[in-house]
Design brief:
alpha+beta, Alpha-Beta Plaits, five-stranded antiparallel β-sheet, 5 strands, membrane, transmembrane
Length: 200
């Protein structure tokens, strides 16, 4: 008897071989469907965890690279902290302004210069610092003025020369009239970071 001659509603009367074949096909189909339904979420989970593993490996490589650079970064931080502390120590405290002005004046006298003006300008606020302008006018020779500006740069407190102008006192004279806008700085109260000495 051929399968084409068999009716599904008469399956119970089919020959045993035909019944076994159909039962086997149905069982395999059910098994395949079950494996698909249970295996698909597991496959999706596997793909998800593989993706997560790749991301974690990438993050681990970044952390490992940062850890390798940590000693170098610590050294750079230490160097910056030392430089920062050195700069703080070079800024004058309020009580030192008079002596700083006297030192600027003394350097001029030591270099045979004659002052026509030397005084502080109005304090200016700049972010975490105050800028203290210093107006200086003097006369002297070119070489003496050069030595004076060099001496100012070597003072223990920071004094920057921002703008300078000079001209001959007269056409026949080698003496120059020298005008310079210098400045020093102070930290604002509460702006000195850790390691500072709290000057303001």
């Amino acid at each position: 008897m051929a399968f084409a001659d068999l009716e599904l509603d008469e399956m119970m009367s089919w020959p045993l071989g035909a019944q076994l074949i159909v039962a086997t096909v149905l069982m395999l189909g059910a098994l395949g469907a079950g494996l698909w339904l249970t295996g698909k979420p597991a496959w999706e989970d596997l793909q998800f965890y593989q993706q997560q593993e790749g991301q974690l490996k990438q993050e681990l490589r970044i952390v490992a690279k940062q850890a390798a650079l940590l000693p170098q970064m610590q050294q750079q931080y230490s160097d910056l902290s030392s430089h920062y502390q050195h700069l703080i120590e070079q800024l004058p405290a309020q009580k030192e302004l008079a002596s700083l002005l006297a030192a600027v004046n003394e350097q001029g006298l030591n270099n045979a210069l004659t002052f026509t003006r030397i005084d502080w300008g109005k304090k200016q606020s700049q972010q975490f610092l105050y800028r203290l302008p210093l107006d200086i006018e003097l006369t002297g020779s070119y070489n003496d003025i050069g030595r004076y500006t060099q001496a100012i740069a070597h003072l223990p407190r920071i004094v920057l020369i921002d703008n300078a102008e000079w001209q001959r006192v007269s056409q026949e004279s080698s003496i120059l009239h020298f005008r310079v806008m210098a400045s020093t700085f102070q930290f604002k109260p509460g702006e000195v970071k850790e390691g500072g000495d709290g000057k303001n």
